Amino acid sequence: NLIQSRDFEFNMYSPKVGDRVDTLDTPSMIADLDLVEANIKKLMDKLVPTGLDIRPHLKTTKSAILADKMVKAGAKGGCVAKVSEAEVIAAAGFDDLFITCEIIGPAKVQRLVELYRKHRKIRIVVDSEAGATAIDEALAKAGIDEPISVLIDLDVGLHRTGVLPGDPAMTLAKHVQGLKHLKLIGLHGYEGHLQHLHDKEDRKSQCLQSMETLTNTADVLRKAGFNIEVVTTGGTGTAEFCATVPGVTELQPGSFIFMDTDYRNAVGTFYSNSLTILSTVLSKQGPRSVTIDSGLKSLTTDSGLAECKDPRYTYGVLGDEHGSLSWEEGTPALSVGDRVEMVPSHIDPTVNLHDFYYAYRGGVIEEIWPVDSRGKVQ
Ligand code: PLP
Ligand code: MN
């Protein structure tokens, strides 16, 4: 029957630990384990001594195994963007999770309630009274008395979500305080608009301004008697600056573990590009041009085009399934069947296009990590 034939299909191709990377079909997402481990170590060496909690954003890796590795290296829990991500990462055994997107609408709220029924470490953000009230009512209706930990989402300049500092933050805090099934624990303020500023001094000074907004609001709320234990913020481009600000308690960088060309161009090479999309040359299209099997379905283009790891070859998009590589005269020609590695331009949406990471050392697959929350956009 249909189900059996699907199982059969899934089992037909299954690379194994111990296989050589050379034997993988393409496109495949491959991770250089030495570089992944070095990126984690660099981040922890830099940030753990500050005493702040590191709660890496798992919107990048979408992987419970990688979340666990980061905790073993010094992190404390993880962030996810969406409830559906939290569902699968928690089900995979990693449930110390902070959901950083607002949870709005009856379907999503109900999913949160069911998630929280099983996983009491889940924490959430709110930026509206209506949003907070709906969650409170759903928990009450479900008979769950233990209040869920809530952070007020503050707009620190990104203008994406979050209440404004001052009266709006105070009013929402009062509202949350009045809800029996919500427990206010802190303030969340993400300065996403600053992560890719190329000028380091500019990035730093604008970040410190955002941090002032965040920590001042935390102080004002505390003085008014609200419980603000957690003040959480920061990404790969700003975490080191956030960490210098008294009052910030938690950092949530994500991309540092793999990096991408967009981040490398902005913040430099302190963290290495540790992930590539292994691709195959399918067709020769001219003396200095070939077509590879990685197009829009394997590499995203929102932040510019991916780059070939070997910089002598220039990538172009040829459609959903195809890309081109071209080169200057004098560069060794690529031939049909050759394999190349492509460095993503934006890591998070690229990871979301693939089922597995093949993590290798010395050309041999050492670990295989499922992209657990692939496609979990709800
Ligand atoms: N926190 C929030 C709320 C985010 O949306 C993101 C990324 O978009 C991050 C942290 C992680 O930032 P990065 O991937 O730039 O390290
Ligand atoms: Mn991103």
Give your account of this protein's structure.
The protein has helices at residues 2-12, 33-47, 64-72, 83-91, 106-118, 129-141, 167-177, 200-223, 239-242, 261-267, 347-351; strands spanning 28-32, 53-54, 78-80, 97-99, 123-126, 148-153, 182-188, 230-233, 250-251, 275-286, 289-292, 307-308, 314-317, 323-326, 339-343, 356-361, 364-370. With 378 residues, the protein is an alpha/beta fold. The mean pLDDT is 97. It is globular and about 70 Å long. The strands form two sheets. Strands 1, 10, 11, 12, 13, 14, 15, 16 and 17 form a nine-stranded mixed sheet that branches. The structure holds pyridoxal-5'-phosphate and manganese (II) ion (MN). Pyridoxal-5'-phosphate is lined by residues 57, 59-60, 79, 100, 190, 192, 195, 235-236, 252-255.
In short:
The protein is an alpha/beta fold and 378 residues long. It contains eleven helices and 17 strands. It has helices at 2-12, 33-47, 64-72, 83-91, 106-118, 129-141, 167-177, 200-223, 239-242, 261-267, 347-351, and strands at 28-32, 53-54, 78-80, 97-99, 123-126, 148-153, 182-188, 230-233, 250-251, 275-286, 289-292, 307-308, 314-317, 323-326, 339-343, 356-361, 364-370.
Write the layout of secondary structure elements.
Layout: H1 2-12, E1 28-32, H2 33-47, E2 53-54, H3 64-72, E3 78-80, H4 83-91, E4 97-99, H5 106-118, E5 123-126, H6 129-141, E6 148-153, H7 167-177, E7 182-188, H8 200-223, E8 230-233, H9 239-242, E9 250-251, H10 261-267, E10 275-286, E11 289-292, E12 307-308, E13 314-317, E14 323-326, E15 339-343, H11 347-351, E16 356-361, E17 364-370
Parallel strand pairs: 1-16, 2-9, 3-4, 4-5, 5-6, 6-7, 7-8, 8-9
Antiparallel strand pairs: 1-10, 10-11, 10-15, 11-14, 12-15, 13-14, 16-17
The protein binds pyridoxal-5'-phosphate and manganese (II) ion.
